[in-house]
Amino acid sequence: MSMQSPTLNKTLLRSLVLSITLLGCSATQTHVSDSSDPWSAWNHDTQLFNDNLDKAILKPLAQGYQWITPEFVNTGVTNFFSNINDVGVTINDLLQLKVSQGGMDGSRFLINTTAGVAGFVDVANLLDLPKHKEDFGQTLGYWGIPSGNYLVLPIFGPSSPRDTVGLIGDTLFNPITYVSILGGSVVNGATAGARVLDVTDRRANLMTTEKIVDEGSVDRYDFIRDSYKQNREYLIHDGKSSDDSDPDLNDESSFGDTKANSPTPVTKKASGKSLKLSEPK
Amino acid sequence: MNVKRYTLFSFFAVLMILMSNTQVMADDLLPPQLAIETASNKLQEKMKDKTFIKDFAKVNQFVNEAILPSTDFEKISALVLGKLWKTATPDERERFKKEFQTLLVRTYSRAFVEFKDWSIRYLPIEMETEATKVIVKTEVLQPGLKPVAVDYRMLQTDGDWKAYDILIEGVSLVTNYRTTFSTEVQNKGSLNAVIDGLAKRNVEALAAKNS
Question: Which of helix, strand or coil describes residue A265?
């Protein structure tokens, strides 16, 4: 069973990190627990741990990567991993009974792997096959499994019990996992390198978001938590925002006018801009 | 090999033609969409000036003036405070509105300074003719990056369309800030203390900082 050892090692490492942070957490119970976020104390500490890890390792790595990498290489790398991710996206499409979207995403993978030179160029996007965001956490949500409490995972960041299970599912749907299980030591080194590159590339793409969050948040923890929760709901419902999310309708400030709720039922469709083509370059 | 190259080339040629077509079809936007477009055109024009965007305080001033006609800060402030708005004194309301507006403009300015070569695509909307409320869906496009979904909840008052919430990838700013401020008030004891804290942060963020 020697070929399974790298994955085992990884799991071991993760649980080790988890228990260390758990230990550190029990000592500092500074934050008042709130009914909507009962694990707030653990989460604050883990976020601090992640932020420090980010500051010490990930961010400098990503900055260096951004500095030495030309823009088109950066885009190519992002596309390459996004293409591998499309395998999981397709599986999750089918698990959510989105058959036509599954067909589209399957085609995306095939087109980008071939015409897109192993995924480095996102040709499919130009062919009206845009990227979809699906993962196993969303699939569980689609089938009505509640997210559970907000949970910040060491290294992985914002999550919930449901999305943690989702993360495990997605690891199983990721071809790189099998390459690293079945391959020899050379292949293992390569996939480990690929993972580091993937994480670095993703971190580099988050630089802008980070600056905006720092500018806009009153309380960084709250801001990230609420954004995460809202974004997950949005993804599960595929961007269809329900009317009850309108803050004006469940407003407690009694600001007034709800007259907008009784419109005459004449519907006019606006063409807007054509949906047919995306990303004019 | 040559055949492949030609196919690829003609493929891109066709794409270019198709793309120039969409630009022509772009212009029949509805009034709420136009409100957004007017503001973002102003910003887009100004952001080309690379020396201008170095001065963050100036950018803020400009962004504020550009988005003011199409943003309902009064309503946003009321929605963000929710229950607290009802019990707030007129003075507290005024002060909160001012500081919160500064925070929003600051955040918006940061986004515009950070985003490179962005452009906006307006998704088709369905709208009842008499409607006074609508969600304008857009995508912010940047070369080499995935499009970012930005939706505006808009309300028509006295003939003008004004935004009262912005949703970025489904994250509503009003909902986010509402939770934040209700916790803040609990932690700090009073709305006044929260406003003071906000004012202090605003001053720090805008003082002598280059973007």
Answer: coil
